[in-house]
Amino acid sequence: MEQNMKVRGYKDEYYPPIPTRGTRFWRTNFMYQIYKFFRLNYKIMRIVVKGHS
Amino acid sequence: MKVVVLGAGVSGHTAAAFLKKKLGNKHEVVVVSPSKYYQWVPSNIWVGIGKMKVEQVRFDLNRVYHRWGIVFKQALVKAIFPEGDVGTSKGFVEIEYTCEENKGSREKVSYDFLVNATGPKLNFEATPGLGPGKNTLSVCTCDHAAHTWEELEKCIIRLKEGKRQRFLIGTGHPTATCQGAAFEYALNLAFLLRHKKLDHLAEITWITNEYELGDFGMAGAFIKRGGYYTSTKIFAESILSEYNIKWIKRAGVNKVEPGLVSYETLDGAYNTIEFDFAMLLPAFSGHGLKAYNKTGEDITAKVFAPNGFMYVDGDYVQKPFEEWNMKDWPQHYQSPTYKNIYAAGIAFAPPHSISKPMKSSNGTAIFPSPPRTGMPSGVIGKVVAENITDIIRKGVSVPRHTASMGRMGAACIISVGYGMTRGLGATMTVSPIVPDWEKYPDWGRDIHATVGEVGLAGHWIKLFLHYMFIHKAKGYPFWWLIPE
Ligand SMILES: Cc1cc2nc3c(=O)[nH]c(=O)nc-3n(C[C@H](O)[C@H](O)[C@H](O)COP(=O)(O)OP(=O)(O)OC[C@H]3O[C@@H](n4cnc5c(N)ncnc54)[C@H](O)[C@@H]3O)c2cc1C
């Protein structure tokens, strides 16, 4: 499939935001993701516990 | 007292586990389910992509139920007699055994309390030509997923031979739901082909009945991202673009022939798309259970909605989208007609959809049905068990425990890849599932609890949840401390 942005032009897939190198770096940075792991788990636990009584 | 649970899926198994734990040996808990296996359905995606074997996502229930003291009947429930019949005034269900030893034999199982947790019927028949054994594949059960992987392996061989392959993933019916699962499969497929350096020969298309991507049957959501309140449409489109996946939205698939899908779009156009490999999710319905009163009169329409799901304490009065309210959604999952019957998980009839109903100019309804993901299904199972326990042990007359879709949140973790270092997870949480525009007038939901993130962490969470929930379902030490 077309990877090239010029070829994609004027198609739906041309317009959405695409992650920068920096964003991709942080997505797989081990230390940052460990922090995210705990943070996301905390958020999920909160909505599970809060949602019923 | 005797509590009978129909279905040993996420909701029924959770309900049975808590019922037995809380009621102890003084009371009897019976589970009726057609398969001897419990399967952790969310991990079927990994089976369908060849990263897990069927044995890793399921286990034999007999051992667990034997240890817990739960009576297990491997059977299908056929009909409910809430008032008994001429011979008895006690409610009972009629079941038909599916296990080898007494396959086909029938039995009447009486109950004091009944929990219907039979989940969805995978209604492939609603779309001509759809489904395994016909022209498309599925990941809805682990057997379907294993077959899907076999077919995918054949495509991979053809790609390695330099042949182009067209993959079509998404919803196979104009009102199908569970977009999250199909979306996860599409991304895993793209990730796998990229990893194998075959993506230049593959064309992956996402086909969906959503009005906009990221609707996921819950009317989309807003998340805080990069200094903006951003719609999940942007989030979903961004991920598909990143993985070079094209999309067709507002599409209701109405027929599948070998290598060809026909669909109608909201603007009334009829189109077709060719494919070499198609994984399309079917519409869901109830299992078509029947209900009879004491004299044998058919009262199915009183107990079940036309789609086969069971009526509970929701507000089923038809009203326009603009008047929908989160209060329409049930809280206790108790049948309004028979107070000792409950419906947990997907088995309860939703009062209406969450996404706005849309019709094409030809009058075809094209929009997602409401999703009922694993987390709420588990929570409902537990709440139903707590309410029944309260009635039996404390004699309370009104159920105290509640779990409304208008209060509960959901986490959808779309995990791509496999292993600890290779992979990404797109984590989406929303709270509540059904928007509450009175409490949250700006965004319909708690914007602080709503998350949309992509990263390795989400992938770890998905793996972690797999092992944690299987630990819990097997009843290993401290299982009850693990939240639903
Ligand atoms: C591929 C896939 C991926 C998913 N991923 C996620 C995810 O990542 N996160 C998430 O939260 N949710 C996910 N879901 C949704 C989740 O799996 C469901 O919400 C959940 O399984 C519903 O639980 P349930 O108990 O209501 O139904 P089920 O799990 O379907 O269980 C129903 C049970 O009833 C039994 N039964 C059926 N008919 C009868 C009968 N006549 N008599 C007796 N028993 C009967 C069935 O055999 C089964 O044991 C996914 C779904 C799919 C298909």
Fold and architecture overview:
- Chain A is mainly α and 53 residues long.
- Helices cover 62% and strands 0% of the residues of chain A.
- Chain A has 3 helices and no strands.
- Chain A has helices at residues 5-8, 21-28, 30-50.
- The longest helix of chain A is centred in the C-terminal third of the chain and has 21 residues, at 30-50.
- Chain A is elongated.
- Chain A starts with a helix and ends with a helix.
- The mean pLDDT of chain A is 84.
- Chain B is of the alpha/beta class and 484 residues long.
- Chain B has a domain at 2-122 and 286-394: FAD/NAD(P)-binding domain, CATH 3.50.50.100.
- Chain B has helices at residues 10-23, 44-48, 54-57, 61-68, 142-160, 179-195, 232-242, 300-303, 374-394, 456-473, and strands spanning 2-6, 28-33, 37-39, 58-60, 71-81, 92-97, 106-110, 113-116, 121-123, 165-171, 202-207, 222-225, 228-231, 245-248, 251-257, 260-265, 270-274, 277-281, 283-285, 290-291, 341-343, 410-416, 424-430, 451-455.
- Chain B has 10 helices and 24 strands.
- In chain B, β22 (410-416) and β23 (424-430) form a beta hairpin.
- Bound molecules: flavin-adenine dinucleotide.
- Flavin-adenine dinucleotide binds at residues 6-12, 32-35, 41-42, 44-45, 76-77, 117-120, 139-140, 178, 181, 287, 345-347, 372-375, 377, 413 of chain B.
